[in-house]
Amino acid sequence: MTYLPKLYQAILASATLSEDVKSLKKPSSTQSSYIKTRGTRFSTCQPITHYLLNAEEMDKATILYSLLKLHLIRGKTIIFVNTVDKCYKIKLYLEQFGIPTCVLNSELPATIRCHSVNQFNQGIYDIIVASDERALEQPGNEKQQGDGKKSKRKKDKESGVSRGIDFQFVANVINFDFPLDAQSYIHRAGRTARGNNQGSVLSFVSIKEKPLLEKVETKIQQGQDISVFKMYQFKLEEVEAFRYRAKDAWKAVTRIAVREARLKEIKQEIFNCQKLKSYFEDNPTDLQVLRHDKALHTVRIQRHLSDVPEYIIPPTLKSLTGITKKKTTSESSTAKFQVQKSNPLLSMQFEGFGKKKKKK
Where is this region: Disordered (predicted)? Predict the structure, then answer.
């Protein structure tokens, strides 16, 4: 502020009007005015399609694995959960199937979070698992409670990825955990369909989350007769073969594995953060080498899980997945032999000139 002239006009725009934002007016101006705009209604004409899918915890994991592995969901995707632990559980779960993901939560350094978002926008990786903790959405929760006890450790509000962060060209938003209120749902959905782009939001809803859905739907509709949400057409019985794989992989991600993954990730990213401050200042071109979607290896990975056998793919989805059966060595040899046999020029065998018999 000391470098600004004595007379100037300033406009400060903010998505949220918190006490921190209000405090900026004190050193800058004695005469200031607030212009606060409110959205009239949740627009149903925006290029976002909102889907619902009723599923319990284990079914959610199976469906997520099926959608990603069968390429039914394509493009940049953000998977939202409500806790940091669930964030790492999803990462470790998908890691077993050879699906790389990047984690974004309040525990990571701000520099690393910004770098992760930049790499995501550049297309270095396509899937982010983001924790949208309630403490980030309701700053009042960080204040002291009535009994004099302090709440849990203060979290970095800037890491709330449901709002404020500029994700580019996001095609899909998946609410693995349904958001806790309508405002959070709107901010999550707002991560996709930026500008003139299309986007979709798929929300998994369990029986316990039904009341949250009803509150969100009532708030969003605001008296409109037409519901914003559509039921996602997905038959769980068709991917029953995926359930066995998903069940074993989901159970393999224990609390101990999640805790070890969190500690390992924090140590790794703090080390990366030190690199960002020193080495990469002198070598900006090497910044792309630093990736945030590397496997944590706190859960035993079985190589066969990364492949999808043709026999477990539903017949109705084989034409959509684009997954082709890999030919074995024997099948390739047989195919080559059949091609050679059908071609008369290749199948003709020359026995050579026979020796003439001598006349007696």
Answer: 136-159
